[in-house]
Structures are given as structure tokens and as C-alpha cells.
Amino acid sequence: MHKTFVAESNKGMVEYLLGAGYADARVADAMLSMDRKAFVPPQYAEHAYDDYPLPIGYGQTISAPSIVAVMSKELDVRKGMKILEVGAGSGYQAAVLSYLVGETGKVLTIERLSGVAELAKRNLANLGVKNVEVIYGDGTKGWQPEAPFDRVIVTAASPDIPKPLAEQLKEGGKLIIPVGSTYWQDLVLIEKKGGALIRKDFLPVMFVPLIGEHGFKE
Q1: How far is CA 49 from CA 28, 195, 210, in A?
Q2: 10-205: which CATH architecture?
Q3: Parallel, antiparallel, or unpaired: how do β-strands 82-86 and 149-154 relate?
């Protein structure tokens, strides 16, 4: 999507994202408050502020900073919202969203791999993040006990829009998800209006596959 940048600090990374238009002011503030290095394995710490995905174990990755910024910006998250994230990873995207929803909001993030779910919990706890709940389960089913959601974000590639996620989205709500094959996808923004799903494809991306009942099969 752009020439990869290399930054020496979290502040330098965020300044680039803001200047390049990947982040807006609110997302930049959120990313400044949640140091990406805290969510990167120690052996990759020197690359924490570079703009590319990094392995976190279990065959999973932490997304490139520019992708986190773009997805967060396009979701247009506001204080007090309730957000569902599918795919916790190391907890970085959830941490950024937790700042955006504020103390009156809540982020629920569902992770299908227990080891990854525990990693996210540890990282979020280490930063004192209190408004994120990490759930171990199949995120393609959404989370009915807390539905409906103001926003839904999926951080893995799906062959289509999982029906439960669309159903659990509030009227007027937004859902962002990579849709396509296991190798190449388009980042898709869905807005629910009058019960209909208005779709906008806006960026080619490459994510790990979304595994589950309403995603890719193992």
C-alpha cells in the first residue's frame, strides 16, 4: 500500500501515520497512548515501530501500524461505544480501540487460540487497560450475550461477511473486515442502514485467515 517506513520510537511511528493520512488526530492520540512495543515479542522489539506485520507466535501476527491506523480511522469509533473485535492477536488493536471508546465504552475481543488469548490478556493487563474483555471462542459467531454492537472489527481474512456479525451489528453501525481468499483480500467497510448492508471496498490487504464456523475451515 505504500513504501515501508522504519521509525525509532512510538512517537516517530505515529507522526508518520498522521502525516501520511493513515491516522486522524484521535487515532494518533490512541496509538501514542498504547506503545506498540508492549505488544511485540521481545525478539522483535527492535522492529516494533516498523510498518509491517510481526510474528507473535501460534502462526499469528500483529498487524502493520498503518493497517491498525486505517481500520481504526475508518470505523469512526466514539466515546461510550461497545465494540466487538474478532481476532485478539497480541491485544494491540483492542488497546487502541479501548482508548477511543474511553472509560464509558467497552471492547470485547474474541480469540480462537487459547495461547493467543492469554497473551492478549497479559499485554492488556500490563498496560492497565480495564475496558477490554478477552473471550476465548469462535469469533465468526460473534458474541450474542453482549449484542448488538456499535462497531465490529475483524482482524483476519474471511471468504465473506459472517452472517452472525452482520446480525449483531446495530442499525447505523459499522463493520470492517478483510474479505477475499486466504492469500489476498480487500478491506471492506460495511454500514447497516435500514437493515441493509452498504458495502465499500477500499484497500487491498493480506491477513491471516479467519478460521471458524462462518469463516475458513481448518
Answers
A1: 14, 40, 25
A2: 3-Layer(aba) Sandwich (3.40)
A3: parallel
Domain edges within the chain: 10-205
176 C-beta neighbours (distance < 10 Å), count: 21
Distance CA 159, CA 98 (A): 28
pLDDT at 130 over 60: yes
* Contacts of range 3-11, beta carbons closer than 8 Å, 24 or more positions apart: 4/50, 4/51, 4/52, 5/50, 5/51, 6/49, 6/50, 6/51, 7/49, 7/50, 7/51, 8/49, 9/49, 10/35, 10/36, 10/37, 10/48, 10/49
63 is catalytic: yes
User: Can you tell me whether residue 78 is helix, strand or coil?
Assistant: coil
* Options 63, 66, 90, 158, the catalytic residue: 63
Q: Judging by DSSP bridges, how do beta strands 106-111 and 132-136 pair with one another?
A: parallel
17, 26, 27, 122, 177 from 72: Cα distances, Å: 12, 9, 7, 22, 12
Q: State how far Cα 141 lies from the chain centre.
A: 17
Strand partners, 177: 188
- Residue 69: pLDDT band (50, 70, 90) is very high
Mean pLDDT, residues 37-52 taken together: 96
Place of cell 490478556: 121
Longest dimension (CA), the chain: 48
